[in-house]
Amino acid sequence: MRWLDIPPTWLVAGLLSAFGLDRLLPGLGFGWDWTRLVGDILIVAGLGSMGAAVLEFIRARTSFIPRRRPSAFLRSGIYRFTRNPIYLGDAMVLAGAILHWDVLPALVLVPVFGSFIERRFIRGEEAGLIAAFGDEARDWMGQVRRWL
C-alpha cells in the first residue's frame, strides 16, 4: 500500500473531506458570488503551477515521483519562485475547490494539508537534495522560499 502514500492521494482526501463536509452540513458557505470566481482562478493557477513544474522535470529528464533519488537539480523556470510548485499547486487546487463549493469553514484543511505534506514529503525531499547536491542545494534553499 506504499504506492497510495503519494501527494495526489492526500489532495483527493482533502477534496473529499471538503466535499463531504458540504454534503454533511450544507449551508456552511455565505453564498458570495465572488468565492466561485476566486476558487476557479486558484484551481487554474494551481494546475498551471503543477504543469510548469512537470515541464521542468521532463526537460531535465528526472523523476517527479516523491522519495526517488533526484538525477537533476531543478532551479530554472517556476523553481526560481518556489521550491515546491507541485505541492503549492495542490494546496491552491484544494483552496480553490473549497471556495468554488462555498464551504468556507473547510479552508482550515488548506494549512492542515500544507503542514502534513511538509512533514510527510517536503522535508525528506529537501534532505535528499542536500545529500545529492550539497552546498548548491543549500544555497538555492536559502534564496527560494519553500512555498511562495
From TrEMBL:
This is Isoprenylcysteine carboxylmethyltransferase family protein. Keywords: Membrane, Transmembrane, Transmembrane helix. It comes from Maritimibacter dapengensis. It comes from the Bacteria. It is found in: Endomembrane system. It holds the Pfam family PEMT. It is a multi-pass membrane protein. The chain crosses the membrane at residues 41-58.
